[in-house]
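User: What would this chain look like folded?
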Amino acid sequence: MKIKISPNGTVQFIYSDKLRGLMNVGKSEIKRASHVEPTSDGRWTADLGPSSGPVMGPFETRSEALMAEAKWIEENIL
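Assistant: Here's the prediction, encoded as C-alpha cells.
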C-alpha cells in the first residue's frame, strides 16, 4: 500500500477502508482510476483509461485483474 504526498500537500492513494481516515485531514475527492470488467468469455480486463493508462489483460480471475490494476497505479501514479 503506497501513499503519495506531493510538495503542495496533495495526498494520493488507492482507496482502502483502512486509509479512510486520511480523507478527514482536508478537502478530499474520490476518483475512479480504472474499470475492472468481465469479458464475454468470462475473463477480466483492467481498463486504466481514466488514468491515461492501458487496457490490461485478459486475466483468468478478477483478483488477478485487480492486482495488475493496483500494481500499475502504484508504479505510474503513486
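Helices lie at 62-76. If you want, I can go into more detail on any region.
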